[in-house]
Specification:
Elements (H helix, E strand, L loop, with lengths): L20 E5 L3 H12 L3 E5 L3 H20 L5 H9 L1 E3 L11 E4 L5 H11 L8 E4 L6 H5 L8 E6 L8 E6 L5 H13 L3 E5 L7 H17 L5 H11 L6 H8 L1 H15 L8 H8 L12 E2 L6 E2 L2
Parallel strand pairs: 1-2, 1-4, 2-3, 4-5, 5-6, 7-8
Antiparallel strand pairs: 6-7, 9-10
Helix pairs in contact: 1-2, 7-9, 7-10, 10-11
The structure holds nicotinamide-adenine-dinucleotide.
The site of nicotinamide-adenine-dinucleotide has 29 residues, from helix 1, helix 4 and strand 6.
């Protein structure tokens, strides 16, 4: 049905897979990033969120991020214009009917994702693959909420998507080989490296990364060090490019808390207990960079530690 060469694919990337049009649900930092790399990879992109305003903001962010790549010489203006022309708003879920692959990148909340699948599945092409970018939730459980568990898969991009080379692929119990192969082809086409994880809470990267971030928050909570002391210690003492609290703000503290809750509940081990200070920041709506305040305050010229 779909195989063909794409005129829009940049040199050296090769033959377009049978997937031509990518639908994205959630125009936040991850959905925007996935749209960005998919459009540069020659795919048509349809982007959906809860309001036309959010979609427009998401598309404007992608445009700005590509402009920065042009400014730093990583992208040509022509490639940017061509890629932006491949991205369209999909204000109604029915607008995603044309997609061969839909990637759900909405808020890390199982109830939200379930509601999306219930609305989305009847609108999709029966052949379409449905993927989730969840950081932690069971792929098998999410798949069971859809009409296509065999064509459901976890495609877990890292943040920021245009920069990070890794994508974790996670099969649910029912995911068919064809779905897995199609997802592999798509990800390779984006020039990313794949690592395959079994379907366990938070997969590989976040199973290791989030307990470290949570421990950094406990270190702050117990007064062992200030925000600055903890981040400096891990940047210079462990050679991490970002301190763990800076990274938590970058990921989003709501997402960090959700992942810790999934680890805690899914593995029933007290070592994954979310730090009460993380809970408090989320309750305050201090979610990190995306809301202007988290472990740092981003509202001025420079980030200022909030503790
Ligand atoms: P975000 O808060 O930046 O964006 C989430 C978007 O989902 C928002 O624009 C919101 O309006 C939208 N949304 C919420 N409910 C919706 C609905 N019913 N229909 C359509 N859109 C809806 O969050 P994010 O950081 O982009 O995370 C999105 C997903 O990606 C989560 O599952 C998260 O775990 C995962 N993820 C995040 C990171 C990270 O570092 N932030 C990394 C990898 C994966």
């Amino acid at each position: 049905m779909y195989f063909k060469e794409s005129a829009g694919v940049p040199d050296g990337i090769g033959v377009m897979s049978k997937i031509e049009t990518i639908g994205i649900v959630g125009a936040g930092q991850m959905g925007g990033g996935i749209a960005h790399v998919s459009a540069l990879g020659g795919y048509k992109v349809l982007i959906h969120d809860t309001s036309a305003d959010r979609i427009e903001k998401g598309i404007a962010t992608i445009s700005g991020n590509m402009a920065r790549q042009v400014g730093s010489g990583k992208l040509e203006e022509k490639a940017r214009n061509e890629a932006m022309a491949r991205i369209s708003a999909a204000p109604a879920m029915a607008d995603l009917a044309a997609a061969d692959l839909v990637i759900e990148a909405a808020t890390e909340d199982e109830t939200v994702k379930r509601k999306i699948y219930a609305q989305l599945c009847p609108q999709l092409n029966p052949e379409a693959i449905l993927a989730t970018n969840t950081s932690s939730i069971s792929i098998t459980r999410l798949a069971a909420q859809t009409d296509r568990p065999e064509r459901f898969i976890g495609i877990h991009f890292m943040n920021p998507v245009p920069v990070m080379k890794l994508v974790e692929l996670v099969r649910g119990i029912a995911t068919e080989d064809q779905t897995f192969e199609a997802a592999k082809t798509y990800v390779k086409h984006l020039d990313k490296t794949i690592t395959v994880s079994e379907d366990f809470p938070a997969f590989i990267v976040n199973r290791i990364l989030l307990p470290m971030i949570n421990e950094a928050i406990y270190t702050l909570y117990e007064g062992v060090g200030t925000v600055d002391a903890i981040d400096t210690a891990m940047r210079l003492g462990a050679n991490h490019p970002m301190g763990p609290l800076q990274l938590a703000d970058f990921i989003g503290l709501d997402t960090c808390l959700s992942i810790m809750q999934v680890l805690h509940e899914g593995l029933s081990d007290s070592k994954y207990r979310p730090c009460p200070l993380l809970v408090k920041y989320v309750e305050a709506g201090w979610l990190g960079r995306k809301t202007g305040r988290g472990f740092y305050d981003y509202r001025g010229d420079h980030p200022v530690p909030t503790r």
